[in-house]
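In response to reviewer comment 3 from the previous cycle, which asked for concrete evidence that the modeling workflow produces usable outputs, we include below a single protein chain processed end to end. The sequence was submitted unchanged, and the resulting structure tokens are shown without manual editing.
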Amino acid sequence: MEEALAATPFSLESGEDCDALLAESAKSDAGAFGELYERYYIRVYRYVYHRVGHTSDAEDITALVFMKALEALPSYRTRRNGFAPWLFRIARNAVVDHYRRRRKQNPLDSIEHHAGDADPVGHVLGTEQRAELRNLMTELSNDQRDVVLMRYAADLSFPEIAATLGKKEPAVRMLLHRGLRKLKAVMDDA
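The workflow returned the following structure tokens.
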């Protein structure tokens, strides 16, 4: 019995390998793409939300990211960098496109209305905290902001962030370190 167990290779697939298999399956099976959507929706949404700062914009952009991912899935190559970096590159580009479009138009209804909130004090405090976080994030360079948000809002690993941004992992770690140090310095000055 022990010989049979020792002879059988036993390995759990890593999340990245499982995502690659799902992505390949999703090319012909919508259910597999649904599984990828379930795995990544909240992570993509958090990243996008912290970049754009509005719930409705974040929801729209996140939906657009998954729509673009589904359309581009036939061109996805499993062994290139992994599914998460591929998906977050789409998300990052969608945020950039959002700001380009927004620069060209100036919507009148940019203020969110929350008439039905049960806890107005909690809503105001939450809004103030989000605004303070957005103000702090403006102190960072674009690369530092992306790394901080991909690490903490999207929960990506350093290799995934490096692949997404097209940088080496030590450079990503340094961007995170410098970004966090800069945030701390700004908070200490305030």
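The two ends are 66 Å apart (CA to CA). We consider this sufficient to address the reviewer's concern, and the full set will be provided in the supplementary archive.
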